[in-house]
Amino acid sequence: MEGRQRRSFTDDYKRQAVDLVASSGRSIGSVARELGLRDSVLRRWVEQRGARLEPTAATRRPTTQATLPSADHAAEIARLQRENERLRMERDILKKSIAIFAGVPK
């Protein structure tokens, strides 16, 4: 049984890949997928080259406390919750009516 051949990359390619991660502000995973690499390979290259990466929005910690929603936001949230409940009821009624007209047990 033959195994897969191991791919080798030039130092220039590795440097460009690390530069892309560092300059784009995108995650290592998204750049690795774009380049057809495994995350672990690109992460190792970044660590080996000591690239300074800006934290992505997903990994960045908030610097301030979250503020409470204003009265307008609270009213909007309440309105959307009522609308969601109404839509769920309409969906359930439609499901039940289809089952009745199609003769399919619930």
Automatic annotation (TrEMBL):
* One GO term of the biological process aspect: DNA transposition
* Keyword entries, A-Z: Coiled coil
What InterPro entries does the entry give?
A: Homeodomain-like_sf, RD_transcriptional_regulator, Transposase_8
Q: Which residues, by range, are in coiled-coil regions?
A: 70-97
- State one Pfam family annotation: HTH_Tnp_1
Looking up Gene3D superfamilies in the UniProt record yields: Homeodomain-like
Q: Which domain of life is it from?
A: Bacteria
Q: Which GO terms describe its molecular function?
A: DNA binding; transposase activity
Transmembrane ranges, per UniProt, are: none
Quick check: keyword ATP-binding in the entry? no
Per its UniProt record, what PANTHER family does this chain match? Answer: PROTEIN DISTAL ANTENNA
The protein in question is named Transposase
Q: Which organism is it from?
A: Bradyrhizobium archetypum
